[in-house]
Design goal:
InterPro entries: Anthracycline_SecMetBiosynth (IPR052164), Glyas_Bleomycin-R_OHBP_Dase (IPR029068), Glyas_Fos-R_dOase_dom (IPR004360), VOC_core (IPR037523). By secondary structure, this protein is an alpha+beta fold. It has a single domain, classed as 2,3-Dihydroxybiphenyl 1,2-Dioxygenase, domain 1. The protein contains four helices and 18 strands. The strands form three sheets. It has an eight-stranded mixed beta sheet, covered by helices on one side. A hairpin with a 3-residue loop joins strand 7 and strand 8. The two termini are 15 Å apart.
Length: 260
C-alpha cells in the first residue's frame, strides 16, 4: 500500500464520477472495490466521497444540467485555479466550467484541452486529493487517449510543466509517461488510429485490484460489462470494463491485499 499525503503540481490529484444514478453507482463501486461512501450535505450537492481503509480515494456526484453523465474525470493539481484556467485558455484549451469555489474544500475549473479531452483543475484547501495509490482499491494509473497527440503533449508540458519520458514512438505505439521518471503519474497514448469515429480524446483511470480475472467477473456479477478480458503486457495485467451505467475504467492487477 502506498499512502499519499502530497501531490506534484500539474499532475493528477483527484478523480470523480458524474452519474445519472448516484445510488446505483455508489452500490456498484463500494461492492467492487470495498470502498465506503460518505455523502456530504446539500451545500455540496450530495457529493459522495469514497474511502478505502479510511483513505480518501475518489468522488461521485450527480449529473448537473446537460453535463455528460457516467464518466470519470481526472483533476490536475494547480497552485492557482484562476491562473491555470487562463494559461490553459491562452494555449488553446476551452473552458467547460469557469473557476468556482467549493466551500472550504478548494477551487475547481474544468477545461477541454486542445485535443478535446476534458480535465479538471483543482486548487486545494481542505481537500488535498486522493490518499491511496498503487494498491487494491486505489488509483493505479491515469492515461490520456489523445487524438492530436503532439499538440496535446505540448499543451500539458507548457501549461502544467510536465516532464515526459518516451516509451514508444512508432506508428503502432506512440506513448509518453509524465512525472518523475522513477515514479511517473500517468501517460499519454496516441489513440487517433484506435478510437472509433466520433469518440473524442479523453482521460481514463485505472484502479488497483488483487486479481484482474476475479475482479472482471465481479464487474459482471454487479451488472457491469467487460469490454476487454484481462491481458498481460510488459507493464502489467489489465482489464477494460464499464459499470452498469456505461462508465468506462480499467482494472490494474497490483496483486497485494484483499478485495476485488
Amino acid at each position: 500500500m502506498t499512502v499519499v499525503t502530497t501531490h506534484r503540481l500539474g499532475e493528477p490529484c483527484w478523480v470523480d464520477y458524474t452519474s445519472s444514478d448516484v445510488p446505483r453507482a455508489t452500490e456498484f463501486y463500494t461492492a467492487l472495490f470495498g470502498w465506503t461512501a460518505e455523502t456530504a450535505g446539500e451545500e455540496y450537492g450530495g457529493y459522495v466521497t469514497f474511502r478505502r481503509d479510511g483513505r480518501r480515494v475518489a468522488g461521485l456526484g450527480p449529473r448537473m444540467g446537460d453535463a455528460q453523465a457516467n464518466t470519470w474525470l481526472t483533476h490536475l493539481l494547480v497552485e492557482d485555479a484562476d491562473a491555470a484556467e487562463k494559461a490553459a485558455l491562452d494555449n488553446g484549451a476551452q473552458v467547460i466550467a469557469p473557476t468556482m469555489t467549493v466551500g472550504d474544500q478548494g477551487r475547481l475549473a474544468v477545461i477541454a484541452d486542445p485535443g478535446g479531452a476534458v480535465v479538471g483543475l483543482w486548487e486545494p484547501e481542505q481537500h488535498r486529493g486522493y490518499e491511496l495509490v498503487a494498491a487494491v482499491g486505489g488509483l493505479a494509473w491515469h492515461e490520456l487517449y489523445a487524438r492530436n497527440y503532439a499538440v496535446q503533449v505540448d499543451f500539458y508540458t507548457r501549461v502544467f510543466g510536465w516532464r515526459t519520458q518516451v516509451l514508444g514512438d512508432t506508428a503502432d505505439f506512440r506513448y509518453v509517461t509524465f512525472g518523475d521518471p522513477d515514479a511517473p503519474a500517468g501517460g499519454v497514448y496516441d489513440a487517433n488510429g484506435m478510437l472509433p469515429e466520433g469518440v473524442p480524446s479523453h482521460w481514463v483511470v485505472y484502479f488497483g485490484v488483487a486479481d484482474a480475472a476475479a475482479a472482471s467477473q465481479r464487474v459482471i456479477d454487479l451488472g457491469g460489462t467487460v469490454i476487454r478480458d484481462p491481458w498481460d503486457s510488459e507493464f502489467g495485467r489489465f482489464a477494460q470494463v464499464t459499470d452498469p451505467l456505461g462508465g468506462l475504467f480499467f482494472l490494474h492487477e497490483v496483486g497485494t491485499g484483499g478485495g476485488a
